[in-house]
Design a protein that fits this description.
four-stranded mixed β-sheet, 2 helices
């Protein structure tokens, strides 16, 4: 097997609300709408996030993003009026966690100081 990329997926029930929220989270709207009920943000040519509308599975997703500057992420989230729990130290890295309006977990991580 030679995996070349990944699209993480977050399942939501209210795609319009989620589009607005993730637009604020990422500072831009989605890149693609490949089919009804599915939106995509592309972060590199081989990595991205999908929002999928499915009310029977909404609010149970977790996605983890690697970032170089968690303090910058925290500032951007605050400017976008997105609540977070602050930067937390873990064993070998730091994390910054947020919950979307439906209860999905979004975690930003970077090497610890």
């Amino acid at each position: 097997m030679a995996i070349k990329g990944v699209l993480a997926q977050i399942t939501v029930s209210d795609l319009a609300q989620a589009t607005e929220y993730y637009g604020r989270l990422f500072g831009r709207g989605p890149d693609e709408n490949p089919m009804p009920g599915l939106l995509e943000w592309h972060f590199t040519s081989e990595a991205g996030l999908q929002l999928w509308a499915d009310s029977s599975r909404s609010g149970r997703s977790t996605v983890v993003f690697t970032e170089d500057d968690l303090a910058g992420v925290a500032e951007r989230l605050e400017a976008a009026k997105i609540e977070h729990g602050g930067i937390e130290d873990a064993t070998h890295f730091q994390i910054l966690q947020v919950l979307d309006p439906e209860g999905n977990h979004v975690v930003f991580t970077s090497a610890g100081s």
